[in-house]
Structures
1.
Amino acid sequence: MSLTKKQKKEIFYTMLLSRRLDERAWILHRQGKIAFHISGIGQEAAQVGAAFALRRGHDWVTPYYRDLALMVALDYAPLDFMLALMGKRDESTSGARQMPSHFSSRAMNAVSHSAPVATQTSHASGIALAIKMKKEDKVVLTSLGEGSTSQGEWYEAVNWAAIHQLPVIFLVENNMYAISVPADQQMAVPTAADKACGLGLDGRSVDGTDAFAVYDVIHEVAEKARSGGGPSLIEARMYRITPHSSDDDDRSYRSREEVAEGKKKDPIVVVQRQVLEQGVLTEAEIEKMESKIKTIIDQAVEEATQAAYPEALEAAYPVYAEEVRRD
Ligand SMILES: Cc1ncc(C[n+]2csc(CCOP(=O)(O)OP(=O)(O)O)c2C)c(N)n1
Ligand SMILES: [Mg+2]
């Protein structure tokens, strides 16, 4: 199913909103206003392309910490992100007890991941098994970095999904690094998709800076999974433009020339060029989007700054209870 102009516009808008939110998080960190940020800059095209290929709110996602753009595509609000970054009480995922960027939402069928990388992939296979047993027409999309495909837990999750033909998509966001370790030190095969043949599932590699290409492939494998065709492993290739996190200095392990080269494939630039060339948006419309986004983010920062912190006692409250006593 090909994308309409309206959908392409929405995809670009979502990518841009996520990028500007992410950039603001870096600024807030450098201003000493938040403690930590882990960035999705450079990965927006893959995430938004994938999210748009799902039936959002119907299908399930078990994302990872770089998936801000994926979550924004599922309707994660700028204010919620800012509340989470600032550790404010009304932060939507856990009342500020989970780290920021450990996204979750009941309404979005998004399940929070744990700190050990790749654990969300076995959660995904478990959810997919439940879907199969209940004969529902849902799929699960789980995402992880290429470094995380070295984890035993990931092999178990993929193996299980392949054996039982579960409706799950493993989206590997290959940004070429696991903190300081380059991808060729994580795997002896050229792409993470090559790992699929040893596990018995469909494996493909796609340009992760091209949101529309990612949409096409995820849409195809999602429909296949929905109709009983089993799991798929999709590698989206991109470059991690920022350091690993706000606490990392990447100058110690990669050259500035390499980063400058990587930035040439910035997905915002790639998709902006596409939407302009295809007549989906004009320069003036993009400028209007930018100013709308700036207003939204300024308001979210202001509101989150004014919002209350949790009481110390609230650390002992249950995280996922429907109602908590605040007295
Ligand atoms: C089991 C485990 N080992 C190590 C870590 C520390 N750690 C956090 S993120 C990360 C890098 C993961 O790299 P990758 O999977 O490529 O994802 P990326 O951060 O590049 O998106 C590591 C090693 C961890 N969280 N869990
Ligand atoms: Mg990586």
Note: The CA atoms of residues 36 and 214 lie 29 Å apart.
2.
Amino acid sequence: MRVTLMGTSGWMPSDQRETTCFGCCAGESLFIFDAGTGLRRLREPAQAALLDGARDVHLFLTHYHLDHVCGLAYLPGVLPGRALVIHAPAAELTGVDPERALAGLLRRPYNPRDWEDLADLRLEPVVAGANEIAGHIVRVRAQRHSDVSVAYRVDDAFVLATDTRADPATAELAEGVGLLLHETWYNAADPRTDETQEELRAGYAAHSEVGAVAGLAADAGVGRLVLMHLNPLYDESYYASMEAAARAVFPRSDVLPDGAVVDTEGVA
Ligand SMILES: [Zn+2]
Ligand SMILES: [Zn+2]
């Protein structure tokens, strides 16, 4: 499988990085993870090609924080005429009813059409453990964040874990996959972290420190670690210091630009 990075920032987009969105061709299906501002990249030729030959399109949501769902407003523009299946966590995972949550987001006056009137959308909630979707096994686990989020594992190809504290259970979920895409919010060893305003750092407890993330990748024995959901309070030089800190623990770690395509196989 090949995963296209369409949005690698968290919270706010920057000139270089959109908020969370990843695409991958899974046989004849296109799987998209999160609908951050990066969903708009489906209108760029390189990423529009993901739709060529895709018989059906599935959008998996990790949680409902706005940096992960604001792209739902773009759907008519980025997937014109396409039916879409949205997979959001079932209520027993998060305490949030997915239909109510989505209907609350997609309704007037916030969106020109109500959720109920979007005929090309269908909701199929995912449950904890294994879900069979379009011929693939998609495993789901709840994570600790400021509101509950979920991690996804697709076959033995990759795990996507964002908006979570670094958690040893993620290493269990990711055991032996080719690629771990994991959020990385800060580097405790970089002095710029302590220089960040204290009220902003309060939110860091709901996110992951890079050394801990690299440790999870090593414990899980993944092929490769890609750091994502990068903190927009910092710049590319800070991300380079995070990459170096990750590599000191797990050498096959990278920070990659939006638009990069990562193969989940063939990594030694
Ligand atoms: Zn986020
Ligand atoms: Zn979040």
Note: Residues 10-11, 65, 67-68, 163, 229 surround zinc ion (ligand 1) (CB under 6 Å).
